[in-house]
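As a warm-up, study this chain.
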Amino acid sequence: MEIDRTDVVAEVAAAFAGYEQALADNDADRICEYFWDADQTVRFGLADHQYGLDEQRKWRAAQPPLPPGRRLVDPIVTTFGADVAVVTTRFGYAGGAVTGRQTQTWVRLPVGWRIVTAHVSEPVPDPDRR
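Now compare it with the structure written out below.
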C-alpha cells in the first residue's frame, strides 16, 4: 500500500479546505455535504455527538457561527492507498490559545471524498501544571 501519494494528499487537502471554508461561512448544508450520507457516520464534538447524517443536519442547523478568526495549526493529511485518508489538526481562534484538536477519517466514495467519522476535542487544563 502506498502511503501519502502526492495526488491523493492534494485531493484530500482540497476537500478539507472546502470543509473548513464551509465551517467559517457557517453554511450548515455545505458542511454536511462533506460527510458520508449514512447511518454509520459518527461525529463526536466538544459537548455533543451525532450518529448518522440526519442527526448531524439537525444539530448543525441549530448551531451558532464559529467565533471569528479560526486558525489551524499543523494540519496533517495522511493517505493510505488511493481511497482512505486521516486529517488531523489543532485549531484556535483569534486572541486565544490553540487548544482544540480535530481528527477526521475521509474515504473516497462514488460521490467523492467524504468524512466518515470525526472527533473534535479540547483538553481539560491541568490545574497542577505550572
